[in-house]
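Table S2 (continued). Query chain:
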Amino acid sequence: MRILITSILFILLTPIAGGLLAGVDRVISARMQKRVGPSILQPFYDVLKLFQKENVVVNVSQNLYVFSFLFFTIFTGVLFFIGGDILLTVFSSTLAGIFFILGGYSTHSPYSFLGSERELISMVSDEPMVILMAIGMYMVTQSFLIRDIIAFNQPIIYYLPGVFIGYLFVLTIKMKKSPFDLSMSHHAHQEIVSGITTEFSGKSLALIEIAHWYENIFLLGTVFLFFAPKPILGVMMSLIIYLVEIFIDNTNARVKWQWLFKSSWFVALCAGAVNIFVLFINQS
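Corresponding output:
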């Protein structure tokens, strides 16, 4: 019963929290750029407007890929918040990303194709660090179950400071913030237009936006895990990290995919792998 209630609450409340976070993002970004900016509720208005538009699709498989992307993103969040296996959540999140990429490839648009290529490169770049995070948490708690990780007697960041730093680096990639927003453009004048979402419109684009709201809440939840025994500190740090991501997004220009790939793997090796190696030595 507890799992069912948690799942229902996550499915119903997460879009509200994710939409509000997106609204805060737009308001703060506008202030940093000396603009008035939209209302904090503007993301909800945008999604509602998209649902009212005609859903023009390039091919019949496009909607299937979008729905699968949303479904597995929600499934990932449900697994996480009911305290399931963290490795399973990582694989489920990756599967959701693959469906998103397939949706971009299916449109045969040069801009969408390029965006899909870059999204695939981004996934290859950030996944090693995410796997190292899961391995590090297992080494500390001797369990892959999120409920056991949360119940650990001390904040895991005490044992995994390098993994935490490395994860924050790839978090910018997963949240699609500059300088690593290679697959999607927030402004139409940029070189790949809207990137992977170029050929999506109407209800499909609305579902993609909602899926990103779910994904952001899940990602902030993973940040919370590093401080889990102290829930107030965990929530505060998650919000602070989100504000830092907004700051980074507004103060950095986009990098090339080569730099993205090399830097993310370098950080994973130097911060994540070294931290896990030191932890292994201490436990031996």
